[in-house]
């Protein structure tokens, strides 16, 4: 089964629809790009400069990856009735926060890379 992002269940808790994770990530990135004209002034103010096309592409990729933790087996097991409700954020936070740079360093590096 392809990794899913959203499930719809009926009154008997059976899955009646599933939105694939790739579709969800692409939808969210497309929504970000559609909203960018309204958000661009605030993003540029936060960056302290105009955003380049490369900045916009990098931000869209980061937005698309916002639910990447849903690919983990624990989260995907939620499609089976009776499985524990495993999340998807803490599992990815470990990748971002446990580095040689330390928590603050990696966040600074990510923000710097996203606005280069």
Describe the structure.
- This protein is mainly alpha-helical.
- It is 55% helix and 10% strand.
- It has one domain.
- The chain contains five helices and two strands; from the N terminus they run ββααααα.
- It has a two-stranded antiparallel sheet.
- The mean pLDDT is 85.
SSE ordering: EEHHHHH
Q: What is the alpha-carbon Rg in Å? A: 17 Å
Distinct helical segment count: 5
Number of strands: 2
Shape verdict: elongated
Count of the domains: 1
Quick one: biggest sheet?
A: 2 strands, antiparallel
Strand content: 5-15%
Query: What structural class should be given to the helix and strand makeup?
Result: mainly alpha
Strand arrangement within the widest β-sheet reads 1-2
Gap between N and C termini: 37 Å
- Tell me, rounded to a whole number, the average pLDDT: 85
What is the share of helical residues? 55-70%
Oligomer: single chain
Spans of at least 5 consecutive residues whose pLDDT stays below 50 are none
Q: Which characteristics define this entry?
A:
116 residues; mainly alpha; 5 helices; 55% helix
Summarize the structure.
The chain has 116 residues and is mainly alpha-helical. The protein has helices at 21-47, 53-64, 73-76, 90-97, 102-114; strands spanning 4-9, 15-20.
Give the secondary structure arrangement, pairings included.
Blueprint: E1 4-9, E2 15-20, H1 21-47, H2 53-64, H3 73-76, H4 90-97, H5 102-114
Antiparallel strand pairs: 1-2
């Amino acid at each position: 089964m392809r990794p899913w992002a959203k499930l719809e269940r009926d009154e008997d808790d059976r899955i009646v629809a599933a939105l694939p994770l790739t579709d969800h990530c692409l939808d969210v990135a497309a929504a970000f790009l559609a909203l960018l004209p309204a958000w661009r002034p605030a993003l540029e103010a936060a960056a302290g400069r105009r955003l380049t096309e490369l900045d916009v592409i990098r931000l869209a990729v980061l937005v698309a990856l916002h639910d990447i933790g849903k690919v983990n087996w624990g989260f995907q097991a939620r499609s089976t009735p009776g499985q524990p409700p495993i999340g998807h954020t803490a599992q990815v936070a470990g990748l971002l926060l446990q580095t040689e740079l330390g928590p603050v360093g990696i966040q600074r590096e990510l923000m710097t890379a996203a606005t280069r």
